[in-house]
Design brief:
It is built from ten helices and six strands. Helix 3 packs across helix 4.
Length: 227
């Protein structure tokens, strides 16, 4: 079986890295707001404007500028917003770390399955994450929306990964932390979409397969049939 993974908050502990970088940004700009209030503001702005990027309302750089303007100063020029985001980005990259369940999962799967990555984002940055985390060599294919011109949950991005490895969608699984974008997007493309619910937010409308940790993934894949 082909097993495809999301990157952010599936392999990389992105939430912690963003929080650390936002705290550094708060100190850099000397905000009057309490740091915890700023972290909440940054998180909300990031979610809102990244969603706009996914919907095609903003390009990748545009969502970065929108996040800085909402959280810091709405009057910033493009150049000033870019400079501030660059300082945030330096702190963000310094805080990259694997989620604790990743190495054990990949080591358990790689002998029996082919592994790959399908991720939204900027191609160079997403690939750099995998290299920095020391896990790039696990993956037979890496498909990034910024390179392809198609974003999750569009079926094309999942099907591109399957095509690269000559695998039918029904013989592939996709694992990601966002139910609608990852699990439902993959299912709409014909793959088995596995929702990684790290935060324990599952409701009655969330359909299986659902796991709370990558440690549970091997059991789910075993229930899908032979590799």
């Amino acid at each position: 079986m082909l097993v495809l993974f999301d990157i952010d908050d599936t392999l990389l502990d992105d939430a912690s890295a963003q929080r650390s970088a936002a705290a550094a940004l708060h100190g850099h700009v000397g905000m009057d707001a309490d740091v915890e209030a700023f972290l909440d503001l940054w998180s909300a702005a990031s979610e809102r404007h990244y969603a706009r990027y996914l919907q095609g309302e903003l390009d990748f750089q545009g969502q970065r500028r929108a996040r800085i303007r909402e959280a810091v100063d709405g009057t910033l020029s493009n150049a000033a917003a870019d400079a501030l985001f660059a300082s945030y980005l330096d702190a963000y990259e310094s805080a990259w770390a694997l989620c604790a369940d990743v190495n054990g999962c990949l080591d358990a799967l790689v002998e029996q399955h082919r592994l790959g990555v399908v991720s939204n984002g900027q191609g160079s940055q997403q690939r750099r994450k995998l290299e920095a985390l020391g896990i790039a060599d696990y993956f037979a294919c890496i498909v990034i929306s910024g390179d392809l011109g198609r974003r999750k949950p569009s079926p094309e991005i999942f099907l591109e990964a399957c095509a690269k490895l000559g695998t039918a969608p029904e013989e592939a699984a996709y694992v990601g932390d966002r139910y609608e974008i990852d699990a439902l997007g993959a299912r709409a493309a014909g793959l088995t979409g596995v929702w990684l619910d790290r935060l324990g937010s599952r409701g009655n409308h969330h359909l299986p397969p659902v796991i709370s940790s990558l440690r549970d993934l091997q059991d789910v894949l075993g229930g899908l049939g032979p590799a």
